Amino acid sequence: MTSFPLSRRALLTGAAGLGAAALAGCDRTAAMLGEGGVLRAADTHPDGYPTVEAVRSIAARLKEQTDGRLNVRLYTGGQLGEEKDTLELAIFGGLDFNRVNLAPLNSIAPETLVPALPFLFRDESHMRAAMDGTPGHTILEALRPHGLIGLCFYDSGARSFYTSSREITKPADLKGLKIRVQNSDLYVAMIEALGGDATPMAYGEVYQGLMQGVVDGAENNWPSYESSRHFEAAGTYSLTRHVMAPEVLLVSGRSWAKLSEDDRTLIRQSAKESVPLMRTLWDQRTNDAKTRLAEAGVTVIEPDFRAFSEKVQPVWDKFLATPHLRKLAEDMVAISG
Ligand code: GTR
Fold it and tell me: Which of 44, 77, 224, 332 is the most exposed place for a label (fewest CB within 10 A)?
């Protein structure tokens, strides 16, 4: 299956039309799935990236199981806009599937803040166990009232800092540095707690932002650091591993409403089956990224992460604002993995 260019404007126009129709009390959702059962899926990452290939595997399975009736087209590499925009499209029914990070959902469903808390997960297997278990299920379900059906979580490894100027070996090294973060108050608070200056910026703007010195650094996992080529502008990677929030695959609640029970079951099952595949691809891609980055001459630093984790308590205090969120965090921490 190939990726198809499609104008974001066309989708927005469609979604706006849907909004107007809904306001007028008309149900035009049937028209929004596209002709011939075509479902649209968006991902900010390019072809070959593990999240994209996992969704591609779902697409293949849906096509095969329905003799081509459910046909998913992938729009990769941010063709339909940044994650904030594609989420909006999905909520308003202009897009069917959307793979995003949890960060852009932080302002929509507070439950998504919990796995993004700095230093919450001990390691990757702890993250996988928590997201596969009851806490993960709670978070997927929390998206439903916001017009999004959460299907599954995908790995995103651990995020670490990279800079164009100074090496980050301790929190004090972040002082005075402008660090790009995702559009989430939690990430802003985290950088501030660590002593840096947070600059929220869309993913697609970071390469240029680093090149032009608008920001001094950013933070991400090995595969994103490599595939985005951010290393060309910021060649020092400091393995702080401060956030291990996973990715999530969503279906628009409006699209979901017009699927049959059988199709929903098939979609859920296919998504579930894509998770082990994604994890295998993820592990391979992480190793490949490490090799390519070493070849490209990136300097890798192993700082004492405890110096960083000791600073983030204010972030936990601020964002675990209700007993419900505190319980969710406790349940996640308590999971053995
Ligand atoms: C990546 C993630 C993307 C996006 C990006 C970012 O690791 O897979 O979905 O969130 O980070 O930093 O914006």
Answer: 77
